[in-house]
Amino acid sequence: MANIIGSPERYIQGRGVLKELCKHVERVGKAPFILVSASGKKRVEAPIAESAKEHNTPLTYEVFGGECSRTEINRLIKAYEASGSDVIVGIGGGKIHDTAKAVAHYTDSPVVIVPTIAATDAPCSALSVIYTDDGVFEEYLFLPKSPNIVLVDIDIISKAPARLLVSGMGDALATYFEARACKQSDSLNFLGGKSTVTSMAIARLCYDTLLADGQKAMLSVKAGSCSKALETIVEANTYLSGIGFESCGIAAAHAIHNGFTAIEETHHYYHGEKVAIGTLSQLVLENASKAELDEVYGFCLDIGLPTTLSDLGIQKVDRDQLMQVAELACAPNDTMGNMPFAVTPQMVCDAIIGADAFGRYYKEQRAKA
């Protein structure tokens, strides 16, 4: 079995680089089909228009319907084919990225990903997470190649709410721990191979960068500042986490996140916020050391990630409800099987309850300090 690592053809990050969009797009296409939300379009239209004027680039905008579902993907395939465009540009958050990648796959077109937030590690991956029209996890769509270009404008991201950056750190937090579990179980990564020394080092670097600069980056965004710490965290959330999860694999943390999507109370919370609880639950499932729990719970509290079920809107710990989460997390088409030991829904349910109890304990200890 081969060791495989994947990445975008080109990753571009810097201040004001959105004004260079059309210059970079020219490498793969001449007529961009830009998928963006209505509110996102207002944030990016001016610099893109400046770039299009300089390079004489025709633009077609399409407003995203809000969910990366089969219905939306099929609608956009028709719109793209009717537009005469030859490259898809997904601008926004994770669901727009995943939808743009899926449409590009089904139309055999190049794709450029432009995050306006650093809230997930979706931009760099050859993967789309498909949901139902109601937002419940349905399946992973594995793609044959990574995006052609990922372009990250720090100026745009620094103006997004701090909660979105923190959510991205919640998603990135899972990268190392899931990579470690997959390494221990000798599981395949998303590319159909085993992790490389490089991909494991990237996953660890992702975690170390979060610990070093996460709180500084969060405070920077809250203050309206574009700091060096913010730049490193955007790279960790976007590139290090994206390469790390895809080239190493995922395990319990994301499977538990997928289980939580079935609980209506959690629908108002971001992907990374639910993944954070999934990561804490995975650590409890693994019986992680007290030192590791201290470090991870402390980090979550420092930057404002959820540490208890009530932080996800679940005010009452209902074992029957959590068993539904656990059963979904252990579904055959999910990634719980990448853990280095056999896992049952009962074990997952107990781990979630345990993680919630630890979260309340750490909050109480901090309040007393």
Automatic annotation (TrEMBL):
Coiled coil: none annotated. Keywords: Metal-binding, NAD, Oxidoreductase, Zinc. It is an enzyme of class 1 (oxidoreductase). NAD(+) binds at G94, K95, I96, H97, D98, S125, L127, Y131. Its cofactor is Zn(2+). It catalyses: glycerol + NAD(+) = dihydroxyacetone + NADH + H(+). Glycerol binds at D121, D171, H254, H271. SUPFAM superfamilies: Dehydroquinate synthase-like. Pathway: Polyol metabolism; glycerol fermentation; glycerone phosphate from glycerol (oxidative route): step 1/2. Residues 8-153 form the Alcohol dehydrogenase iron-type/glycerol dehydrogenase GldA domain. Pfam families: Fe-ADH. Its EC number is 1.1.1.6. GO terms for molecular function: glycerol dehydrogenase (NAD+) activity; metal ion binding. Binds 1 zinc ion per subunit. GO terms for cellular component: cytosol. Belongs to the iron-containing alcohol dehydrogenase family. This is Glycerol dehydrogenase. It comes from Faecalispora sporosphaeroides.
